[in-house]
Amino acid sequence: MIYQKIMEEYHLIHKTSAGILVRSKSEAIIVHALYTNQIPFRYECALPLASTTIYPDFTIRHPRTGETFYWEHFGMMGDPDYSQKAFSRMQLYNSNGIIPSIHLITTFETLEYPLNHETIEKIVKEYFL
Question: Which of these, 28, 40, 31, lies nearest to 128 by C-alpha position?
Fold first, then answer.
């Protein structure tokens, strides 16, 4: 019961096929794609940067090369405050040498334009298979 309250407090409410809890349905779909393709990943693992520590949605180890990739899913881009924070976070990555489309994968959605399984599968295949 205490564990459930803690997870709800952090909004980790969606149980995935890998048995971990995540914040959104889209993150659950990403977990499913990574897990079923046997791509090693961690969810919200600490990443110390020069000025701060952040927690990328996914830290992924490429199964063949061993390179580290980060995947941030920005799921509320229709909210101006949220989108401003998302762009600030991307700038933080960039200023620390983690460049979008090279070692930083980003996905975005709004209520009108939700992320779908097909897009996630294409990204997983392009980067890791």
Answer: 40
Tokens found for residue 118: 């097909």
- At residue 9, φ and ψ (nearest 5 deg) are -60, -35
* Alpha carbons 38 and 118: distance in angstroms, whole number: 18
Q: Give start and end residues of each alpha helix (H) in the chain.
A: 2-9, 25-36, 80-95, 117-128
Distances (CA, A) of 129 to 39, 90, 96: 9, 25, 27
pLDDT-based confidence at 79, cuts 50/70/90?
very high
pTM as predicted: 0.86
- Secondary structure (DSSP) of 67-83: -EEEEEEE--TTSHHHH
What is the percent of the chain with per-residue pLDDT over 90, rounded to a whole number?
79
CA angle, residues 16, 20, 23, in degrees to nearest 5: 75
CA distance linking residue 44 with residue 34, whole number of Å: 15
Both tokens of 117, joined, read 């399984």
The answer to whether 69 touches 104, Cβ cutoff 8 Å, is yes
Residue type, 89: R
